[in-house]
Amino acid sequence: MHQRRHGHAPNSPDYLPAAGYDALLPAYDLISRLLGAATMHRRLVELADLDAARRVLEIGCGTGNLTKLIKRRQPGAEVVGLDPDPRALAMATRKAAGLGVRFDRGYSQSLPYPDDSFDRVLSSLMFHHLDAEQKRGTLAEVRRVLRPGGALYLVDLGATPGGHGPLRRLGPHRRLAGNDADTLTGLCTEAGFGAVAVLDRARTRIGAVSYYRGIA
Fold it and tell me: Does any domain span residue 143?
């Protein structure tokens, strides 16, 4: 869930590190478990219909928990995780040793892959970190790298922060602005996806999340 950010300070990374700070990386997996990320990952993989997928990409993979789950669910597929944070990728690589998963460094707005190269692209709790321009760029790139008939599946928080459990302190935080279902489905359609839909909604420990699908 790490992506390029604007207005970063000199000598600071141009992405949001895990949990917001490099110092929290060792605790990132524990924090994720406590906040219920594993449940969201399982539901996303269930919805993503991976049985026919031969190449799968996760954007904003962080420490690789969802990427590992994808590989275990579809061991015959080539599975790739992408993230700009080298420290998170190093942790992900250690955790996935022996699974045959590949991790690449890069940004979702400029995917380092050829056109029509993946059957599925998955994203978990990343899109609310992107502003409108970055969302458009990411969706255009995802659409480009998906094969005809391939699909994007993503899960993310809604735009209204009220009642978001530990995220209540964010108030009307700009990261959640423009992350409502109407906006996200509209941006998917604008990027050229068909059969765009909200497949499921759930209340989690961090608040309401929605699961989206867009067909290339």
Answer: yes
